[in-house]
Automatic annotation (TrEMBL):
SMART domains referenced in this protein's UniProt entry, alphabetically: FN3 (SM00060), IG (SM00409), IGc2 (SM00408)
Family recorded in the similarity comment: Belongs to the immunoglobulin superfamily.
Extent of the signal sequence: 1-25
Sequence ranges assigned to domain Fibronectin type-III in this UniProt record: 923-1018
Pfam families, alphabetized: C2-set_2 (PF08205), fn3 (PF00041), I-set (PF07679), Ig_3 (PF13927)
Organism from which the protein derives: Haplochromis burtoni
Basic and acidic residues biased stretches: 1081-1091
Record keyword Lyase present: no
Entry's transmembrane regions: 1040-1065
Protein's membrane topology: Single-pass type I membrane protein
Listed name of the protein: NPHS1 adhesion molecule, nephrin
GO molecular function, one term: cell adhesion molecule binding
GO biological process, one term: cell-cell adhesion
Length: 1241
């Protein structure tokens, strides 16, 4: 089809050709997507391959097209992969999710040459493992032994449905019922399993397990639960109480123990029904509960009943044990009541009381060591069955008894109990002296400084209490009073203020003897103004008006000076006369006039009163509230940069007073309204926010803001930066060979930065790229002295730092004059000249621009209106092929020189091609070694002209110093690379190769050159004795088995020669047959040959391939000969005998009429007929004069074989003879080509 599409054909076949070409352009699916199942999170690939894709390939998901780009923007996990040149548009889905579980199809849109196609639907099944199962039951509520419970397990959100298995203590629970419900999302299922379990006390602590499994899991997921079964405990016991009688103040340690139960028993102690303790410990290992009660016995515990109770959650009633105790106790308290303090000469009245005790106690009084007997006693029943005692005592005090101990003693001689209560007796009398330690009154002190004043008092009982007063008012900030040997002291720390100036301080000393003594002092204090007041004459302040402020400084000592401050500025006010003020100070006044601006808004005007004596001042401020219209900040940006598709925020730094400002945004003189474009949003500070900004949003924006005081406006530029898009300024670019090529690509990008362009050669071979430059938004690649290697596609990549970079392809077409292929295989075409065959003369040129061909035959321009000549032109890129088909080739008319001229606008090239008779092949050339091993050698060569027939190749080789050769037939026959195997290691071999066809064989390659190669060493160190070269073995005689083999081979060769002579003589006799019979035989033979041969019409063409793949499976022919292979002996002897069939002699030169092309033209000069075939040279025998007589050659060869005979490595006598007879049997006269039968038409 490709061959026909590029040729010039007759109008009659155009409809058929159009049908074929139309069919060829129809796009079709090579591979359609199939249903696919993947696990969630895996990567899924739906395959789609399109043959001859001419439309746009897209994927549809559930009927929704994903887009034509291979990266599938908007679907980050989706992409089209594969080689688009092979029509691969596979859909790859990474990290498959439930949302991907749907149907897909591959679609190709229609094009000019093909209709659209849609693949079959393919379902993507995304399988999802279940989430961790859970028990759908109240797991916090324990079970009770003997009751039945329903256990439900749920395995949620699986696809497909999970299977659930329940286990108790490792044993599977049978009889479970399963059902399913919908999951949290569509297509997901929740699996449920229920089973009934009877709780046993032995189940306590055992484990329930739930296993969930579906096809996406390698092992099930599980959840477990420990069973908690409740049962009742045993009755408690009390340990640690041996006797019922206990002394008071003793601590009893009792333990209550209860065994068994789940949960373990709760224990609590009660005394006479009141709870003492509700704490206990549990011993899970011993399965018991125990509670320790530490009870300190008191008199109140006499005849008390102790009880311990145990229970748990499933006990029907508490279990208890109790004990009653008897307590022996002494008086809990001995109380001395009455006042022990009195003024000298007064009388004391005191009482001593004991609480209940058993037995009763006695009471007596002591003052120092003196017993007081002026007492009275009373006895009554007390608490807890004991007795109480009350004793009263009277006594008159004196100054000498001050500080003596007064004691009340309670005792019992029978129990040896004794307890006392003592107090110290206090007798009061007044202090003797008071004074103040303070600074002198005539020394001035600074306000804010700290002054320490101390008041002292001596004598008195108790010691005096000191109190400070200021101008008759008690001072609360005095320090704590301190004592010393003779008296007391109290310090007053004063931080001086204006009120302390000439104030009177007094210290009073008193005690419980109820007599007061006082001391006095005064202070002089310097202070700054005690107050600052500032006021404005206007209530409303506006920009441009004058403001008058008045500042009043309060009392100060000495007088202060007023100054004004506004920000960094000091202003001068107007001063008034000073006046006397409080605290003995002076007050001053000042006023200030100020012209208001918007910059004054929210600023503070400070009024400061400063004392130079104190180097200190006081200040106050007035905050300005200036009304003004909107103003824009000096920091307001006039240009904002943003990336396309991002969110742009155009800040608006506007201030105004009042702050209620309304702003209007204009873009390209149109008001921006949020309702018209959802992308516009206004922030609280009137800044404009544009979402999904595009390059169309770029440009100037005007903002107009107003409030009650006026309006103002400003312009702001939005610079939208975006990734580049690039295109070629000219594509393709044509340039002549050797000139300078300029490849230019233009980018649409913002910003345009230096160095944003880079160039890449897209060809396989490396070429010198040239010079890269940039001019604004254009990238330039300049290639000097362009060669043909520079032709191809170049990629211009633009990257301004904003992803993604863009690229464009520019094709550079290098124009050069035509260059014809002129190898040996292009200069000859062979065909039978009997009028029945067709020859193709191929002329191939490479050139740009379009190459046109013209043909001459023997120097005369060819006329393609002649039905026997047909020209077909095929063009593939820079290659142009013109093929002239010669129908019914005639040796008389067509054996000539055909001249092909290829030309374009840059020049022309010419090639002479000989159409000749079929003949033996030309020798191969460029015979060389490809590789060598220890037992093999790989060889390669370039085939020569095949003589118009199918040719094959044969390799001849021998080891060094050997006079006999081994032969290998190359298989397949057309191979030009072949590996010879079975060689000996470290051995030198001589190799040659020649070509053969049905007519004969060529000379050996490269003028019978010999290629000498030495094999490598065997990789193994062990040497095989069978690999030893027979020629290197010593000894004067041949072994017996070699002699037998040689004899058999010589006999076989004699038989071959005899057979060759027989068939040669028979063939020679048949040349006397009539011409008509010969022609009939020729036609029959040719038909058979055409039917049996694998050659196509191209076999009579001059277009060949010079290399093919190596095929080591070649047919090997092993013969021993001195000069050639065995079958060539037959050929040579036969050729000598019938040499005029193979090689037409130069003596025979038929006188032929000129071809029609020469006689038809009026302007063509007629040339002598004898000169028509001088350029062809096919009728001159160059080999015959040098050849000896056939019999001589045969005998010479035979004698040479006898003298140079060597042992063949693989003798196969009879078998080899049969192969030779089957392949190289002499042909009949009718089987030979027409021109080899001894006659010419």
């Amino acid at each position: 089809m490709d061959f026909l599409s590029a040729r010039i054909v007759s109008p009659a076949v155009l409809p058929f050709l159009c049908f074929i070409l139309g069919t060829r352009a129809q796009q079709a699916f090579r591979t359609e997507p199939k249903n696919l199942t993947v696990r969630m999170g895996a990567t899924a690939v739906l395959r789609c391959e399109v043959l001859r894709a001419s439309g746009t390939v897209q994927w549809a998901k559930d009927g929704f097209l994903l887009g034509p780009e291979r990266s599938l923007p908007g679907f980050p996990r989706y992409s089209m992969i594969g080689n688009p040149e092979r029509g691969q548009y596979h859909l790859q889905i990474e990290d498959a999710q439930l949302e991907d579980d749907t149907q897909y199809e591959c679609q190709v849109t229609s094009s000019e040459s093909s209709s659209g196609i849609i693949s079959r639907l393919a379902w993507l099944d995304v399988r999802i493992p279940p989430s961790k199962p859970y028990f759908d039951m109240d797991m916090s509520t324990p079970w009770e032994a003997g009751k039945k419970y329903t256990v439900t397990c749920v395995a949620p959100d699986a696809k497909p449905l999970a299977e659930i298995t329940l286990y108790k203590d490792g044993v599977e629970l049978t009889g479970a019922e399963s059902f399913s419900t919908s999951g949290s999302k569509d297509k997901l299922l929740n699996a449920h399993a229920e089973v009934t379990v009877t709780a046993l006390s032995s189940d306590n602590g055992r484990e329930l397990a739930c296993h969930a499994m579906n096809p996406t899991l390698l092992k099930p997921v599980e959840t477990t639960m420990a069973m908690n079964v409740y049962f009742a405990p045993q009755p408690p016991v009390i340990l640690g109480l041996e006797r019922n009688e206990v002394k008071a103040e003793r601590t009893l340690v009792l333990e209550c123990v209860s065994y068994g139960g789940n949960p373990l028993a709760t224990l609590h102690w009660t005394k006479n029904g009141e709870v003492l303790s509700m704490t206990w410990e549990e011993d899970v290992v011993a399965q018991k509960s125990s509670s320790i009660l530490k009870l300190k016995i008191t008199p109140a515990d006499n005849q008390a009943e102790l009880c311990c109770e145990s229970s748990n959650l499933v006990s029907r009633s508490p279990l208890s044990v109790s004990r009653k105790i008897t307590v022996l106790f002494e008086p809990a308290e001995l109380t001395l009541s009455g006042s022990l303090t009195a003024i000298e000469g007064q009388e004391l009245n005191l009482s001593c009381y004991t609480t209940s005790s058993n037995p009763p106690v006695d009471i007596r009084w002591w003052l120092g060591y003196k017993e007081l007997n002026n007492t009275s006693v009373a006895m009554e029943e007390g608490d807890n069955g004991g007795m109480t005692i009350m004793s009263n005592m009277t006594h008159r005090v004196s100054r000498e008894e001050h500080g003596m101990k007064l004691t009340c003693e309670a005792f019992n001689k029978g129990t040896h109990f004794s307890k006392t209560q003592s107090e110290e007796l206090s007798v009061y009398y007044p202090p003797q002296k008071v004074w103040i330690n303070a600074p002198p009154e005539d020394v001035p002190l600074r306000s804010g400084s700290t002054v320490h004043m101390v008041c002292f008092a001596t004598g008195g009982n108790p010691k005096a209490t000191l109190a400070w007063f200021k101008d008759g008012t008690a001072v609360t900030g005095a320090l704590q009073q301190t004592s010393f040997d003779m008296g007391v002291a109290r310090e007053l720390v004063v931080v001086l203020t204006a009120s302390d100036n000439m104030a009177s301080y007094r210290c009073d000393a008193t005690n419980k003897a109820k007599k007061t003594i006082s001391a006095y002092t005064k202070l002089r204090v310097y202070f700054t103004p005690v107050s600052m007041k500032i006021a404005a004459q206007q209530e409303v302040l506006r920009q441009g008006e004058a403001l008058i402020l008045e500042c009043q400084a309060g009392s100060s000592s000495p007088m202060a000076n007023i100054s004004w401050i506004l920000g960094p500025l000091r202003l001068q006010g107007v001063e008034e006369e000073p006046r006397d003020a409080e605290f003995g100070g002076i007050s001053v006044h000042s006023s200030l006039s100020l012209n208001l601006t918007s910059q004054h808004h929210n600023q503070k005007v400070i009024c400061q009163a400063y004392s130079h004596v104190l180097a200190e001042g006081t200040n106050t401020y007035y905050k300005l509230n200036v009304l003004y219209p909107p103003e824009f900040s000096p920091d307001q940006p006039t240009e904002v940069q943003v990336l396309e598709d991002d969110m742009a925020v155009i800040p608006l730094l506007v201030s105004a007073n009042p702050e209620e400002v309304s702003c209007i945004w204009l873009h390209r003189r149109e008001k921006l309204v949020k309702e018209e474009d959802y992308r516009y949003h206004w922030l609280d500070d009137h800044s404009l926010e544009i979402r999904n900004v595009s390059r169309n949003d770029a440009g100037g924006y005007a903002v107009k803001c107003e409030n009650d005081e006026g309006a103002n406006e400003i312009s702001i530029t939005l610079d939208v930066q975006y990734a580049p898009s690039v295109k070629a300024e000219k594509e393709p670019v044509f340039v002549n060979l050797g000139e300078t090529a300029d490849l230019i690509c233009v980018a649409d990008a913002n910003p345009i930065i230096a160095g944003m362009f880079s160039w890449k050669w897209l060809g396989e071979e490396e070429v010198e790229m040239g010079e890269e430059t940039q001019e604004d938004e254009s990238g330039l690649l300049t290639i000097y002295n362009v060669t043909r290697a520079h032709a191809g596609s170049y990629e211009c990549l633009a990257n301004n730092g904003i992803e993604p970079p863009a690229s464009a392809h520019i094709r550079l077409v290098v124009q050069f004059k035509p260059e014809l292929r002129k190898g040996p295989q292009w200069r000859k075409v062979a065909s039978r000249g009997d009028g029945t065959s067709t020859a193709e003369i191929v002329c191939q040129a490479e050139g740009v621009p379009r190459v046109d061909f013209s043909w001459e035959k023997s120097g005369v321009l060819m006329d393609f209106e002649n039905p026997r000549y047909e020209e077909m032109i095929m063009r593939e890129g820079s290659f142009h092929t013109s093929t002239v088909r010669v129908v019914n080739v005639s040796a008389v008319l067509d054996y000539a020189v055909f001249s092909c001229t290829a030309r374009n606008s840059l020049g022309e090239d010419k090639l002479d091609i000989q159409l000749i008779s079929t003949n033996h092949p030309d020798p191969p050339s460029s015979f060389r070694q490809v590789s060598v091993g220890h037992d093999s050698v790989t060889l390669e060569w370039i085939p020569g002209f095949n003589g118009g027939l199918q040719q094959r190749f044969r390799i001849r080789y021998c080891w060094d110093q050997s006079v006999s050769f081994l032969y290998v037939d190359v298989f397949p026959p057309s191979e030009t690379t072949f590996t010879v195997t079975g060689l000996q290691p470290v051995t030198t071999y001589n190799f040659s190769v020649n070509a053969l066809n049905a007519i004969g064989e060529s000379e050996y390659a490269d003028n019978n050159a010999v290629l000498t190669i030495t094999t490598k060493e065997r990789p193994d160190s062990d040497e095989d004795p069978s690999d030893i070269d027979p020629a290197s073995q010593g000894g004067s005689g041949l072994p017996v088995y070699l002699t037998v083999v040689l004899t058999a081979v010589l006999g076989g060769l004699l038989v071959f020669n005899l057979i060759g002579c027989f068939f040669g003589l028979r063939w020679k006799k048949r040349q006397g047959q009539t011409a008509a019979g010969s022609r009939d035989s020729v036609l029959d033979g040719k038909k058979k040959e055409d039917e049996g041969s694998s050659q196509s019409t191209a076999g009579n063409s001059n277009k060949y391939e010079s290399r093919e793949m190596i095929n080591a499976a070649a047919q090997r022919t092993l013969l021993v000969d001195s000069g050639s292979e065995a079958d060539s002996n037959v050929y040579e002897s036969y050729a000598e005998e019938c040499s005029h069939y193979y090689y037409p002699t130069g003596v025979y030169t038929p006188h032929l009429s000129p071809p029609p092309e020469e006689t038809r033209g009026l302007d063509v000069i007629r040339r002598p007929v004898d000169h028509l075939y001088e350029d062809v040279g096919m009728y001159q025998d160059t080999a015959a004069p040098s050849r000896p007589a056939p019999s001589v050659v045969f005998e010479h060869k035979l004698s040479q074989q006898r003298n140079e005979w060597r042992l063949p490595t693989r003798p196969r006598g009879a078998e080899r003879t049969r192969q030779f007879m089957a392949v190289h049997q002499p042909q009949r006269d009718s089987d030979l080509p027409f021109e080899l039968r001894g006659e010419l038409v």
